[in-house]
Specification:
- By secondary structure, the protein is mainly alpha-helical.
- 39% of the residues lie in helices and 8% in strands.
- The chain has a two-stranded antiparallel sheet with strand order 1-2. Strands 3-4 form a two-stranded antiparallel ribbon. It has a two-stranded antiparallel ribbon with strand order 5-6.
- Helix 5 runs parallel beside helix 9 and helix 6 runs antiparallel to helix 9.
Length: 287
Amino acid sequence: MTTPGIKKDSSLEAEPSYLDFVLVPKFLVAEQADEETKKLMTTVGKICLEKDLRSQDFQCNSCGCAIGIIYGKFRSCHYDGYNYCYGCHGNDTECIPARMIHNWDFKKYPVSNRVKVFISHIENDPLLDISKLNPALYALEEVREIRLLRTQLTYLRSYIVICKTFAVEDFRRKLWPREYLYEQVHLYSITDMQEISSGVLAKTLQEAIAFARKHVRSCQHCRRNGFVCEMCKSLKPVYPFDVESTCNCDKCFTVFRTVFLNTNTVCHNCIKSIRVSNRWTHLHSVK
């Protein structure tokens, strides 16, 4: 019974049984997680089929109570495929990350209480590597667009971070706390995937790109870090973040205008490097 005049502190009450596992923040290594969390983590990118009750010995996958046939009603979790009693599965729904990745399916499905809490803790962490889980997803126009935008951001970041002004702080602030969006191209969080589908992420990236582009072109220090196109020799600099009109040599990373690109294009800078290398090799062999 609660003492009159004293408000009961709900934070001191015992937490439900499905909260008895450790959720590891993204800055901690996975080895520090408990076994249950590790299992849930390994399932993030996999679509799990519904398990047979016999494989669970007719026991709830969370609390272990008897379920099925004459024992008690149960529900299946669409995240891990296991069956749970009604006490451990409240029929709450969540988007399943694996279904997003493999089926481009953003519908919400029933999940266990434990899984619901788990997903709520990891939904903003970049755990989904599209290049490994399902690279075919880049065939979708909206996903391909996001990859292009993030590629632009990675190039722009290389200019902004070495700028002597305070532009880098404004740049980071526009995407905080999702710095991985400009540090990597293929990693996504559950929230990111949902925002790709809704179009929100594209707008966020476009705003950051517009800011960074404007700065680079107007900043005397950043502007000097442009490239001279090895194909046309024009004095007008080219920048790698202008992905619509430029491309990079995948060997020496020289930037040149795409108007000169065709199947027979050979990087002049690479040819020059090969000539110099061959010349040095010849001189040393003569000695």
